């Protein structure tokens, strides 16, 4: 039997910065570490909205990256 | 020149923790910054080495000046 325990979480926000030369949407990604592993989706999304409110570029995708340690 | 908005929070142990946002709104509204910081505290997803964020300590715009040197 193996088990997993949460190690760390990262909040990642993609901002739309304009268009590329080919006409695709250009993104700028910002990662915030030091996120509580027990943070809920609601809390994380609301935090991303708060951070975006002082940002010049519109918020695109918000991602949560969780790391677990596997113990066998 | 590139500006960075630094939002400074007081942590549980009375120390400072900073969240830096690149490309802040220009001009940035003081009330918007305050509301964003209060929302970040309320959602409580961040944890620093000296605990979670408990209050707003301050905010500042940091500007970096780069001067290219002519080498030839």
Automatic annotation (TrEMBL), chain A:
This is DUF1659 domain-containing protein. Residues 4-71 form the DUF1659 domain. It comes from Peribacillus muralis. InterPro entries: DUF1659. Pfam families: DUF1659.
UniProtKB/TrEMBL annotation, chain B:
It comes from Peribacillus muralis. The lineage of its organism: Bacteria, Bacillati, Bacillota, Bacilli, Bacillales. InterPro entries: DUF2922. This is DUF2922 domain-containing protein.
């Amino acid at each position: 039997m193996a088990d997993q325990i949460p190690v760390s979480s990262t909040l990642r926000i993609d901002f739309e910065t304009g268009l590329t030369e080919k006409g695709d949407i250009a993104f700028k990604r910002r990662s915030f570490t030091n996120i509580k592993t027990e943070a809920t989706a609601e809390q994380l999304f609301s935090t991303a909205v708060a951070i975006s409110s002082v940002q010049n570029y519109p918020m695109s995708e918000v991602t949560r990256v969780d790391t677990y340690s596997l113990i066998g | 020149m590139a500006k960075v908005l630094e939002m400074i929070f007081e942590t549980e142990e009375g120390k400072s923790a900073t969240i830096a946002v690149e490309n802040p709104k220009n001009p940035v509204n003081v009330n918007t910054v305050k509301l964003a910081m209060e929302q970040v505290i309320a959602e409580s997803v961040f944890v620093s080495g000296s605990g979670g964020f408990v209050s707003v300590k301050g905010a500042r715009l940091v500007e970096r000046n780069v001067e290219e040197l002519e080498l030839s």
